[in-house]
Amino acid sequence: MECMILDCGGAKYYVDKTLIEGFLGEPKLFVVPGSGESVAGISLYQGCPVMYYKFAGAQSEQGAEAGRCGIILRGDGRWLRGVVGTVSGESSVPETELCPVYPGVWELQSDSIK
Fold first, then answer.
1. What is the 3-state secondary structure (H, E, C) of the chain?
2. What is the pLDDT of residues 60-92, one digit of tens each?
3. I need a labelling partner for 53 at 20 to 30 A (CA). Which of 15, 24, 37, 113 fits?
4. In whole angstroms, what separates CA 88 from the centre of its chain?
């Protein structure tokens, strides 16, 4: 699978390039009251709302930080979903070596066994 590598909260995640709708440099995220710990915040991309998620154990990703990027993934047409972190490169990784953590986002199986 062709992936973008995303550093997030001290962990590396692999984002399926075929599902990427766009990128947003240093996104300004707004807190969603009552949304739970898995939601980093919400923003707009080309007039469409994007709900950004964070992963279990990841540090807080709210607010703009230098070098952060929002990777926006395709949704159902009414909304988009995204993840926030620092893009550190690209990679081609066999799916057999990956473990899904979120639709379109993976981690190496060796990293998921802790």
1. CEEEEEEECCEEEEEEHHHEEEEEECCCCECCCCCCCCEEEEEEECCEEEEEECCCCCCCCCCCCCCCEEEEECCCCCCEEEEEEEEEEEEECCHHHEEEEECCEEEEHHHHCC
2. 444 435 557 899 998 776 779 999 888 999 999
3. 113
4. 13
Do 53 and 60 form a contact (C-beta atoms < 8 A)?
no
Question: Splitting the chain (114 residues) into consecutive groups of 10 residues, what average pLDDT does each group show?
Answer: 89 93 89 87 89 68 58 82 91 93 89 54
User: What is the C-alpha separation between 26 and 23, in angstroms, rounded?
Assistant: 9
Pull the structure tokens for residue 40: 């980093």
For the record, the structure tokens of 67 come out as: 């070098």
